[in-house]
């Protein structure tokens, strides 16, 4: 992290260490490919193992502007440590540059994040839904997507006396 | 073309010439591009996944795995129940090694709370994890043998797996989805005489693994179909995010149990098997050797397990003992608060990973300070492994797809969250 800050000072918005000792860097969305390329190619860092990508919808958190945080986990086999990156994007323009040309593993994780949160990855070669079907409306893991909302592709037969899903409020 | 003494310049007349069709027979098969749908539940694809395969003859030109048939909304479900109620959901991510998912999730939660679990609980977690690593690998190796045409290795694998499932049932009360962990420790202690039973099962298991090894490793059919197929080199594997046996088969020595030891893994003697070529055969060999190492760890853990409590003595985290609940008002209150509101995990975030049977199982957890998780992200080891299948298999034969899909051991539950 120190090296990233030294090398690309304008890219880093914020750095902090969470309560469990994990070091985080919040970077500008535009600078993300540059930071990732530096992390991957620097001979002393070599964060080559692609971990995962996900997003956090901060709608109900105290600090919720901008609304989405896209989180990246990379691992360095050489140094034996994880690096955690964050990019904050707003609700109106949830666009992040893609990493799929840098890490091939990013391709599917970006599709997953797009599928669940509607965050678009600019420059992604094949950005379509991965787990849900094409006709699905909305993004199910956003906090404002109702828990019991159902969009069956084939009409469901009515089933009585079955308690559906978690929670305590009974049938929808 | 073979020489049949025909004059080369004479164009054969298909109606009169007896050899007229021969050139057609021997020429390259004229084919159209054909699209085949494998799945959603094909016997060779473990888990429900649909593969749209474009074939040119027998060669795969393009493959598009379509997942999501099992999608159950794991994250959303977890975000709407208490921390403890997430445990059954985590079990069902990988139904072959439920305890590993369970303990991995708990590990992350405990890290977020800043909780140290009792020594004995750590040992029991190692024992449970290794038993489920064995059952997972046995299913994978057995199914690989079966789909290459060998039924006997599958039966041997199932015999050992049944023995282990019986031991699991004695320990946890369930065979597959155990929900055995609790925040701060585990659910219950080892039953009386259980360790001796496990040792006996392991003795038999070693024989079974040896037999399986003898039947498969030098089997002509098995070797021909797995050696040199489904190859991925180390650089690509790292780029895709491979971990676990699939990465180690490429020659990369990365095992979280060694790299960042958790629980009490640093106290045991075991080796990390590493392959060379990154093909299906190496992935199979790595799994066979890993099973032997798991047995080794299990024996050491059973020999050295210390006495003591199995869950932390903190009523804000673990349910109070029943006599306290029935006899004291404090006990009733803590019990009630834990059941109704859940464990109050302080706000913050954590990323933690453990070595599950198929690789790095990572958890990114965000808490907003209430009794329910705000965000649970699981980095399933099967996801990147499946993502690389098009890269591995395009340009290869259709028959190579089967062993590749076997040995990468993609688990529908965790990939499709």
UniProtKB/TrEMBL annotation, chain A:
The UniProt subunit note reads as follows: NDH-1 is composed of 14 different subunits. Subunits NuoB, C, D, E, F, and G constitute the peripheral sector of the complex.
Q: What is this protein called?
A: NADH-quinone oxidoreductase subunit C
Q: Which residues form the NADH:ubiquinone oxidoreductase 30kDa subunit domain?
A: 26-150
Query: Which reactions is this enzyme annotated as catalysing?
Result: a quinone + NADH + 5 H(+)(in) = a quinol + NAD(+) + 4 H(+)(out)
Q: Where in the cell is it found?
A: Cell membrane
Membrane spanning stretches: none
Keyword annotations for this protein? Cell membrane, Membrane, NAD, Quinone, Translocase, Transport, Ubiquinone
Report whether Membrane shows up as a keyword of the record: yes
Regions annotated as coiled coil: none
UniProtKB/TrEMBL annotation, chain B:
> Catalytic activity annotated for this protein?
a quinone + NADH + 5 H(+)(in) = a quinol + NAD(+) + 4 H(+)(out)
Q: Identify the EC number(s).
A: 7.1.1.-
Origin superkingdom:
Bacteria
> Domain NADH-quinone oxidoreductase subunit D: where?
148-416
- Record keywords, A-Z: Cell inner membrane, Cell membrane, Membrane, NAD, Oxidoreductase, Quinone, Translocase, Transport, Ubiquinone
Query: What is the enzyme's main class?
Result: translocase
Read off the InterPro entries from this record.
NADH_Q_OxRdtase_suD (IPR001135), NDH1_su_D/H (IPR022885), NiFe-Hase_large (IPR029014)
Q: Quaternary state and partners of this protein? A: NDH-1 is composed of 14 different subunits. Subunits NuoB, C, D, E, F, and G constitute the peripheral sector of the complex.
Entry-linked NCBIfam families: NuoD, PRK06075.1
User: Which family does the entry's similarity section mention?
Assistant: Belongs to the complex I 49 kDa subunit family.
Q: What is this protein called?
A: NADH-quinone oxidoreductase subunit D
Which gene carries the instructions for this protein? nuoD
């Amino acid at each position: 992290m120190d090296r990233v800050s030294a090398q690309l000072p304008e890219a880093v918005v914020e750095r902090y260490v969470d309560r469990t000792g994990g070091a985080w860097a919040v970077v500008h969305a535009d600078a993300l490919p540059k930071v990732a390329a530096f992390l991957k190619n620097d001979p002393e860092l070599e964060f080559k193992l692609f971990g995962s990508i996900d997003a956090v919808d901060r709608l109900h958190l105290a600090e919720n502007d901008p609304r989405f945080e896209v989180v990246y986990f990379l691992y360095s086999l050489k140094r034996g440590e994880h690096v955690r990156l964050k990019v904050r994007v707003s609700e109106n323009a949830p666009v992040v540059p893609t990493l799929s040309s840098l890490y091939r593993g990013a391709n599917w994780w970006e599709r997953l994040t797009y599928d669940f949160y509607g965050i678009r990855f600019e420059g992604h070669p094949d950005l379509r839904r991965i787990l849900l079907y094409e006709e699905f409306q909305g993004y199910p893991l956003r906090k404002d997507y109702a828990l019991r909302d159902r969009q069956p592709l084939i009409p469901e037969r009515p089933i009585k006396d079955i308690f559906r899903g978690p929670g305590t409020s009974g049938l929808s | 073309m073979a020489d049949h003494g025909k004059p080369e310049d004479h164009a054969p007349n298909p109606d009169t010439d007896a050899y007229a069709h021969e050139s057609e027979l021997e020429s390259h098969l004229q084919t159209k591009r054909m699209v085949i749908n494998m799945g959603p539940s094909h016997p060779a694809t473990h888990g429900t996944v649909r593969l749209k395969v474009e074939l040119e003859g027998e060669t795969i030109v393009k493959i598009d795995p379509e997942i999501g048939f099992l999608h159950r909304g794991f994250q959303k479900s977890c975000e709407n129940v208490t921390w403890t109620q997430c445990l059954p959901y985590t079990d069902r991510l990988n139904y072959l090694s439920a305890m590993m998912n369970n303990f991995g999730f708990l590990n992350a939660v405990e890290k977020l709370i800043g909780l140290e679990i009792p020594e004995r609980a750590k040992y029991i977690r190692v024992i449970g994890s290794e038993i489920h690593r064995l059952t997972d690998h046995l299913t994978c190796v057995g199914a690989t043998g079966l789909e290459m045409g060998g039924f006997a290795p599958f039966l041997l694998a199932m015999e050992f797996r049944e023995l282990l499932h019986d031991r699991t049932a004695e320990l946890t009360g369930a065979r597959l989805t155990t929900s055995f962990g609790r925040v701060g420790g585990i659910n219950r202690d080892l039953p009386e005489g259980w360790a001796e039973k496990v040792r006996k099962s392991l003795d038999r298991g070693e024989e079974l693994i040896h037999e399986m090894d003898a039947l498969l490793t030098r089997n002509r059919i098995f070797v021909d179909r797995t050696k040199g197929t489904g190859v991925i080199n180390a650089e690509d594997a790292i780029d895709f995010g491979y971990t676990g046996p699939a990465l180690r088969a490429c020659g990369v020595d990365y095992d979280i149990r060694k790299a960042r030891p958790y629980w009490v893994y640093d106290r045991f003697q075991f080796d990390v098997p590493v392959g060379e070529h990154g093909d299906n055969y190496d992935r199979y060999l790595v799994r066979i050797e890993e099973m032997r190492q798991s047995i080794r760890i299990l024996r050491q853990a059973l020999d050295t397990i210390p006495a003591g409590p199995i869950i932390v003595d903190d009523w804000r985290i673990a349910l109070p003992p029943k006599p306290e609940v029935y006899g004291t008002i404090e006990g009733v209150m803590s019990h009630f608060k834990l059941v109704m509101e859940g464990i109050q995990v302080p706000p913050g975030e954590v990323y933690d990973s453990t070595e599950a049977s198929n690789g790095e199982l990572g958890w990114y957890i965000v808490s907003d300070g209430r009794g329910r998780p705000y965000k649970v992200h699981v980095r399933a080891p099967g996801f990147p492994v499946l993502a690389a299948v098009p890269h591995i298999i395009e340009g290869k034969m259709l028959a190579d797809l089967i062993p590749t899909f076997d040995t990468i051991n993609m688990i529908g539950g965790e990939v499709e969250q």
